Amino acid sequence: MADLIKLSGLKRYYDVGGEIVKALDGVDLVINHNEYISIMGPSGSGKSTMMNMIGCLDTPTEGTYEFEGEQVHEMDDNQLASIRNRKIGFVFQTFNLLPKLTALRNVELPLVYANIPRDERLEHAKIALEKVDLTDRMHHKPNELSGGQRQRVAIARALATNPSIILADEPTGNLDSKSGGEIMEVFDALFKEGNTIILVTHEAYIAKHAHRTIHILDGCIEEDIVNHKSKARKKPRKQKATA
Amino acid sequence: MFAYIESLRMALSAIWGNKLRAALTTLGIIIGILAVTLMGTLISGLDRSFEKSMSFLGRDVLYIAKHEWFGEQEWWEIRNRPDLKVAYVEKLKSQSKYVKAAAPVTMRTVNITREDEMAMGINIAGTTPEYMQTAFLNIESGRFFTEGEDRSGTRVIVIGYDVANALFENENPIGEKVKIGNYVFRVVGVTEKQGKFLGLFSMDNRALIPLGTYQRLFSRRGWMRLDIKVDENHIADAKDEITAIMRNLRGLHPEEKNDFAINQQDAFRQQYQTMKIAIGGTGIFITVLSLVVGGIGIMNIMFVSVKERTREIGVRKAIGATPSSIMRQFLFEALLICLFGGFVGMVMALGGSILIDKYIFPSTLPVSLAITALVLSSVVGLIAGLAPSFRAARLDPIEALRYE
Ligand SMILES: Nc1ncnc2c1ncn2[C@@H]1O[C@H](COP(=O)(O)OP(=O)(O)OP(=O)(O)O)[C@@H](O)[C@H]1O
Ligand SMILES: [Mg+2]
């Protein structure tokens, strides 16, 4: 089986008025199925840029990106949209739910873009909401939900298409520690069900939930360590350090 | 197909979420469509009532009179023309091979009374029985007067439908007596209901008496018209021949101008065409103007909408919306707003046409025009929505997500 994700010599430069900002400057990384990874690093080190890259929202300036054997760096906008839809689930710091849609409709949305018939869509969306324990709130709109509940809806939306990987950029950044803890429980549970998760965080106690922590500094991987005392008890099937 | 339905639903719910704005935005389109449909309704109504009026004037009937219907002669030129004479009728009939029937017509306005009832302002025409052939007239009950009655100046009268109704409500007028001034007439016939000529002159508010009687009781001089029915296959030839005979009767030298006019239905047609072009041109101008203004309004509001919903677009893209599905969503939104405007405009025009039909003249909104209106508003929507939708489709997902 191909690696889930393989980044080689990946660079992302921004040209800001003639000055080149090296947001990512040569990243090599391999991620396997059913890994639970946290990414840490100071502000401006390139964590979000890397997440966007992995999430196929952005394309590299240089280097290659393989996702389940597909060459992402060669894809056009439509192919990128399709791979985001089918293979990737995003969770954002600011939830990013559509305010006019109910929780159920928000969760249903990725399935709309996957061209799945309506009945089937609702069924999948309800299953996803069940996983985050929000069935009783599915007809509520985002502004009728607490921050933690909103983030759970966002997680359900990320799960809806049954993606290969879930990417969460500071998912607890806007939450109090109690709600943050609940969100981490959801991630832990999803990992135990066999999902692959990458999350960005500034908090060491959150990073400890993961089995592997990658430290980034100035657009390069500084450290990539396996965390044997992870809070999520199930061990990953394979553990491979990157080159 | 499936994706189209979904885009349509998204567009619908976006419009629903901003009902007032959509309604205000579409005002320009409503006015444009209202203008085009009302104008079309008006013209089609005019057409119909014009054609109906024209049926009072036979295509193959020439009307010889002192003036041209739509002439450019000065009034004094016409004033000096001699009156037409009854005697011309026999001359024309015997000298022209194209004349099928001919009737002199002279007219005045009178009041007709019967006991306590009075019909006021009735056009009373003196003519001969051949009028039945030159005019498009049917007798509802009774009969027209005869040649004998004309020669002997018998006081018989054929009354119009409205006159009969005014004087003889629920009674049979045939054989009854009516009075014009002090003269007593016997009603011999009632003409069928005919309606108005060009929406102005009622053809039912009149009466006909024998020319002989008219001349004996009222006047031998004054305004007269000769209605000449000619061979319908040789109308132009007939006109030439009759002109020649008339010039001969009047004793005109070749260099002298005609001192009479030969009028035809065609004169009305030409006049009407000019008017129609003027109305139609104004209508098209208003329509194009308001559709352009409306379209720009839609484009503007769509740009605002795209800007406002930048983050939403980012989210949709992040979870897998393709550029074309975003494009479709916004294009449908513009299309639906315009289509709604077109529909409202059409419904208002429909209401307008019902009012016109009731109070002005018969008219209906033609189906083809309704379809044109909807197609037109869709086209405006598509064109106006193109640039904003394209901008939405091209947004970079990361930047869109970061947009505050
Ligand atoms: N669109 C852009 N244009 C120019 N420079 C950018 C752009 N996006 C990111 N950068 C730069 O790239 C670098 C990495 O940014 P990034 O957002 O990845 O940092 P981060 O690690 O996520 O920081 P934080 O912890 O504050 O979220 C920063 O120096 C930033 O200024
Ligand atoms: Mg960041």
Structure description:
The complex is a heterodimer of chains A (243) and B (404). Chain A is α/β, with parallel strands linked by helices and 243 residues long. Chain A has one domain (5-226): P-loop containing nucleotide triphosphate hydrolases (Rossmann fold, 3-Layer(aba) Sandwich), CATH 3.40.50.300. Helix content of chain A is 32%, strand content 26%. Chain A is built from 7 helices and 10 strands. In chain A, the strands form 2 sheets. A 6-stranded mixed sheet of chain A has the order 6-7-8-3-9-10, with helices on both faces. Chain A is globular and about 50 Å long. Chain B is of the alpha+beta class and 404 residues long. Chain B has 2 domains: 2-53 and 270-402, no CATH class; 60-263, no CATH class. Chain B has helices spanning 2-16, 19-25, 27-54, 75-79, 87-95, 131-134, 147-152, 161-167, 211-217, 235-250, 265-308, 310-318, 323-359, 367-394, 397-402; strands at residues 61-65, 99-114, 117-127, 139-142, 156-159, 177-180, 183-191, 196-197, 201-202, 206-210, 225-230, 261-263. In chain B, strands 2-3-10-5-7-6 form a 6-stranded mixed barrel. In chain B, β8 and β9 (201-202) form a beta hairpin. Classes of the chains: A alpha/beta (243), B alpha+beta (404). Bound molecules: adenosine-5'-triphosphate and magnesium ion. Adenosine-5'-triphosphate (ATP) binds next to β1, β2 and α1 of chain A.
